[in-house]
Amino acid sequence: MSAPDPRPPEPPAPAPIPPVPTKQPYVWHLVNSMRYSLSGFAEAFRHEQSFREDLIFVGLMVPLAIILPVNAVSTAVMIASLLLIIVTELLNSAIEWTIEDISPARRPLGKRVKDMASAAVFLAFVNCLIVWAVIIFANWERIKTLEFVRWPPVWIP
């Protein structure tokens, strides 16, 4: 009688790798991505009161950022700080809905995650406030004259 083989048995062969599905053309991929993004934007607008409030705030502040007598880079930074509020609010809403979908029951960890996401929105507002304050303070000499609100503008003959 022969001695048993000391080697462990070989694992079964892995399943064959399925063929890679053909990708859709780049243009259709881009179109579908845009459609999903707009759908998410519409869902947030439809179901999130705080998102609508943030949109109103941003909608009122963007024209002010554009007409203030600051350079183009400062205007872009001011608008970017406003858009950061919208982005963080979208992420906050997505996190909150995911937590609610996982378990509608109150759970301490779920509350902690929701509070952290809410803190991110708060920090986006603080960031916006600081950016606007620094830019307005740096350009106060031009802003305080209110020349930019005079009608008709100087450049119209």
Task: Describe the secondary-structure layout.
Layout: H1 26-47, H2 49-67, H3 72-102, H4 108-138, H5 140-143
Helix pairs in contact: 2-3, 3-4
| First-last Cα distance | 112 Å
State the CATH architecture of the domain at 40-139.
Orthogonal Bundle
Radius of gyration, whole Å: 27 Å
Low-confidence parts: none
Enumerate how many helices there are, as a single number. Answer: 5
Oligomer: single chain
E-strand count: 0
Percent helix = 55-70%
Q: Quote the average pLDDT.
A: 89
Describe this structure in words.
- With 157 residues, this protein is mainly α.
- It has a domain at 40-139: Helix Hairpins, CATH 1.10.287.
- The protein is built from 5 helices and no strands.
- α2 runs antiparallel to α3 (72-102) and α3 runs antiparallel to α4 (108-138).
- The N and C termini lie far apart (112 Å).
Question: Short description, anyone?
Answer:
With 157 residues, the protein is mostly helical. It contains five helices and no strands. It has a domain at 40-139: Helix Hairpins (Orthogonal Bundle).
Keywords:
single chain; about 160 residues; mainly alpha; Helix Hairpins; 5 helices; about 0% strand; elongated
